[in-house]
């Protein structure tokens, strides 16, 4: 009997190992890690009426409790090295009229450590919620950026004296965001640009950032500006602008994360993508003696959830998934890009040579339902790039399958599963 159990145990390990190997591209996990804490229909959720107001300055250690519902009025600054702690299950509602925004200033911390079964939620107070109802969450740190002087400030009509970020401490700690949802943020600022749902500026690598979902952002979902970051299990759903943006010398490792776009809800204008990797916004403000942006991305899934991707591409509703700017580096591995036009665009300022292409790597990728794979901006001839990235040493594979065939359960309204179907990679490995 013991011998039989031992054999069964070995067989189960082999099955699980095989399943993991076949699912190794895109988001991974033996179980669907999106379950329990995410919400793909946030407009249908009733969070209750606010009974507490957050406004002005928070200058001492403060705790927000689950038993209350808080409304964020105007720009609320956590200053004076204070720590804002938020209990699991707490709801904070951004005020539409006053552009509610929470700013964690440099030196302060936020400890928003939710639970898988009890996430912390930031959402809108509008009856009919939509992208850009309120400001968002801004966290500022003192890790390096590549601007002259080593510091900068966030604009968005906020107080410039209180939104300074950047410094020399790559290991600084701005707190914890874990099992957190941010919904309907990214308000348009009069006379300025659109805010982001979550702005991470100059954060150090001791900051914990994992299991964060941003849905229906009017601006970028995750804007990473400088700093040194390790992030995982980030979810961007139907953002108007970029899902993941990196700039100003960001050093970032991003793992096991998801971006879902829609042909009809997300912007199809130039500059709106799943991932934008740039070293600067303004070249004249950039100190090239400092580190430029370097992103290592692995097990990322980026998809357009349209039911007719080919028709939407033909109609011009779909743009590229990834953009890489000049002087930036991107290493993307074991990731899925499905339903874009094309998959990747490189800045036309990047000279196509061995030196530059060694800084822009795509390995063990799964390209699906894309009208072309990797192009240089404004250039329809991508033969040199196809020859480079199509080399068998990179183990990239290509397919033309719809979402239902590609992913486990994308149509489930409550608990979608965006993991790649078992065996899918094996079946498509020869279709180059």
* Gyration radius over CA: 22 Å
Can you tell me the residue ranges where pLDDT is under 50 for at least 5 consecutive residues?
1-22, 426-432
Number of separate strands: 32
Range of strand content: 25-35%
N-to-C CA distance: 49 Å
Shape: globular
- Domain module count: 1
Mean pLDDT across every amino acid position: 90
Helix content: 10-25%
Q: Which structural class should the secondary elements be placed in? A: mainly beta
**Largest sheet, strands/sense/barrel:** 17 strands, parallel
Give the helix tally: 6
Looking at this protein, list some descriptive labels:
432 residues, mainly beta, 11-stranded parallel β-sheet, globular, disordered N terminus, disordered C terminus, signal, T9SS C-terminal target domain-containing protein
What does this structure look like?
By secondary structure, the protein is mainly beta. The chain has one domain (50-428). Helix content is 11%, strand content 34%. It is built from six helices and 32 strands. The strands form four sheets. It has a 17-stranded parallel β-sheet that branches. A hairpin with a 7-residue loop joins strand 31 and strand 32. The model is unreliable at 1-22 and 426-432 (pLDDT under 50).
Topology:
Elements (H helix, E strand, L loop, with lengths): L1 H21 L29 E3 L2 E2 L3 E3 L4 E4 L2 E4 L4 E4 L4 E4 L6 E4 L4 E5 L6 E5 L11 E5 L11 E2 L10 E2 L9 E9 L14 E4 L6 E8 L6 E4 L2 E10 L6 E4 L3 E11 L13 E3 L16 E11 L4 H6 L7 E3 L4 E5 L2 E3 L5 E3 L7 H4 L2 E4 L2 E3 L5 E3 L6 H7 L7 E3 L3 H4 E3 L7 E4 L3 H5 L4
Parallel strand pairs: 1-4, 2-5, 3-6, 4-7, 5-8, 6-9, 7-10, 8-11, 9-14, 10-14, 11-15, 14-16, 15-17, 16-18, 17-19, 18-20, 19-21, 20-22, 21-23, 22-24, 22-25, 23-26, 24-27, 25-28, 26-29, 28-30
Antiparallel strand pairs: 12-13, 31-32
């Amino acid at each position: 009997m013991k011998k039989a159990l031992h054999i069964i145990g070995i067989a189960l390990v082999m099955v699980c190992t095989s399943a993991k190997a076949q699912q190794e591209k895109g988001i991974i996990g033996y179980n669907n890690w999106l379950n329990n804490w995410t919400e793909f229909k946030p407009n249908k959720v009733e969070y209750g009426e606010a009974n507490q107001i957050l406004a002005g300055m928070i200058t001492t250690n403060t705790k927000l409790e689950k038993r209350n519902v808080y409304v964020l009025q105007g720009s609320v600054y956590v200053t004076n090295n204070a720590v804002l702690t938020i209990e699991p299950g707490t709801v904070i509602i951004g005020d539409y009229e006053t552009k509610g925004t929470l700013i964690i200033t440099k030196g302060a911390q936020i400890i928003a450590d939710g639970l898988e079964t009890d996430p912390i939620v930031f959402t809108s107070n509008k009856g009919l919620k939509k992208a850009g109802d309120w400001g968002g969450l801004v966290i500022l740190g003192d890790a390096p950026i590549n601007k002259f002087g080593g510091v900068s400030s966030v604009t968005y009509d906020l107080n410039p004296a209180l939104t300074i970020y950047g410094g020399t401490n790559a290991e600084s700690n701005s707190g914890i965001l874990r099992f957190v949802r941010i919904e309907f943020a990214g308000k348009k600022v009069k006379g300025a640009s659109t805010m982001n749902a979550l702005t991470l500026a100059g954060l150090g690598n001791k900051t914990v950032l994992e299991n964060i979902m941003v849905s229906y952002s009017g601006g970028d979902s995750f804007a990473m500006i400088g700093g040194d970051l390790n992030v995982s299990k980030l979810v961007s759903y139907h953002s108007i602008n970029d899902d993941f943006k990196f700039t100003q010398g960001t050093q970032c490792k991003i793992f096991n994360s998801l971006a879902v776009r829609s042909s009809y809800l997300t912007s199809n204008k130039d500059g709106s993508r799943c991932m934008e990797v740039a070293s600067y916004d303004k070249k004249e403000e950039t100190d090239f003696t400092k580190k430029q942006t370097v992103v290592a991305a692995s097990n990322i899934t980026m998809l357009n959830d349209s039911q007719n991707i080919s028709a939407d591409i033909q109609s011009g509703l779909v743009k590229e998934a990834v953009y890489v700017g000049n002087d930036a580096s991107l290493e993307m591995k074991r990731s899925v890009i499905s339903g874009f036009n094309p998959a990747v665009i490189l800045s036309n300022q990047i000279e196509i040579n061995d030196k530059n292409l060694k800084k822009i790597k795509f390995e063990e990728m799964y390209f699906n339902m894309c009208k072309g794979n990797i192009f240089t901006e404004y250039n329809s001839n991508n033969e040199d790039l196809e020859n480079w990235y199509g080399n068998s040493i990179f183990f990239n594979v290509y397919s033309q399958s719809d979402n239902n065939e590609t992913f486990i359960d994308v149509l489930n309204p409550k608990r979608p599963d965006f993991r790649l179907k078992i065996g899918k990679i094996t079946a498509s490995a020869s279709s180059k």
